[in-house]
Amino acid sequence: MTKDIKKVVLAYSGGLDTSIILKWLQERYQCEVVTFTADLGQGEELEPARRKAEMMGIKEIHVEDLREEFVRDFVFPMFRANTVYEGQYLLGTSIARPLIAKRLVEIAEETGADAISHGATGKGNDQVRFELTANALNPSLRVIAPWREWELHSRTSLIDYAEKHQIPIAKDKRGEAPFSVDANLLHTSSEGKVLEDPAEIAPDYVYQRTVAPELAPDTPEIITVGFERGDAVSVNGVSLSPAMLLTELNTLGGKHGVGRLDLVENRFVGMKSRGIYETPGGTILLVAHRGIESITLDRGAAHLKDELMPRYAELIYNGFWYAPEREMLQALIDRSQEFVTGDVTVKLYKGSASVIARSSPYSLYSMDLVTFEEGSGTYDHHDAEGFIKLNGLRLKTYAARNRKAK
């Protein structure tokens, strides 16, 4: 079964685990390995990954800056739906995986590879996200998941394997890392080790992108986020590309301690897990987007979006970004954003991001209708009587039946 694999494209970070996977693929499958390293705004220098792949004899190395594509084609469409998983999680890891997997598939097709490979473990959600995306985009490709195949099931065995094959090991990798981190332009995610027990308070050193709210500036900061057709396009009047806009919101939010979350979530594979998330820019973006929608969306459209959002969020979390039902929901969501254009003023203060003003050339808000002063007569107060009677008719009938039954 191993001999039919001639070339594999590996999602490669340059770290210990994926470097071991690289060597293991060469040894186990006797195949050529192509590496792919993506810059999604994780804040790490990627050239060391290129140099390490070269050192390990890799001829085809792909290192790509995908930050703009990530925010434009994945983060922004998701935020048009105000997407939150289980009421709190802004899906920073979940939304990155379909892009990485898409590029793995594309590079496999470009290089004539037979398979792709990833470093996700057999307990997590990422294995599902990578492999469902591959199934949707090119079902003929084989997916190799080393953590489900090999016998290296401890940190000691990994280090022994690395030393045996002369794979460089950073000094800090010889001991147990206090927790694992996944990061991109949308968020940081910290899990495992010192964070596994949800009864224990996470240590302060876990947080990397935000200051503690109590240490944030004592003076609020007021910012304005501009939107066009549901997507943020400017901050404080300055037009920015999608990735640069999210970077700016991350800086502003991080300074004020915005976007921290300590969450126990339900993984798709069936277990609960505890994670510490930091999503400063995304938190501001969500608050601001809901703010502009509040004056530009019709009540029926807004409420329908809110009803559909949990299903949409679950599809993304579970790895179904390329499933037809997610694409159908996206078409509906995008149609709702036609007039979601305008400016939202947000106050950042001590861990909170609050909308304090909003305006739009397409606003449905009518001062004439809501004023407590004398209006133009568009709204007739007497109409409310018949409205209430008709809506109360079934309640009267229901109450009469119940009183008679008693």
Describe this structure in words.
There is one protein chain. With about 400 residues, this protein is α/β, with parallel strands linked by helices. The protein has 12 helices and 14 strands. The chain has a 5-stranded parallel beta sheet, sandwiched between helices. Helix 7 crosses helix 8. It starts with 6 loop residues before the first strand and ends with a helix. The mean pLDDT is about 95.
Give the neighbour order of strands across the main sheet: 3-2-1-4-5
Low-confidence stretches: none
CATH hierarchy, class of the domain at 7-67 and 92-176: Alpha Beta
What's the helical proportion of residues? 40-55%
From the alpha carbons, calculate the radius of gyration and give it in angstroms: 25 Å
Q: What best-fitting shape do the alpha-carbon axes yield?
A: elongated
Query: H/E element string?
Result: EHEHEHHEHEHEEEEEHEEHHHEEHH
By CATH, the superfamily of the domain at 7-67 and 92-176 comes out as HUPs
CATH architecture of the domain at 7-67 and 92-176: 3-Layer(aba) Sandwich
- SSE-based structural type: alpha/beta
Number of helices: 12
Proportion in β-strands: 15-25%
User: Residue-averaged pLDDT, rounded?
Assistant: 94
Separation of the first and last Cα atoms? 74 Å
* CATH fold label of the domain at 7-67 and 92-176: Rossmann fold
Largest sheet: 5 strands, parallel
Total beta strand runs: 14
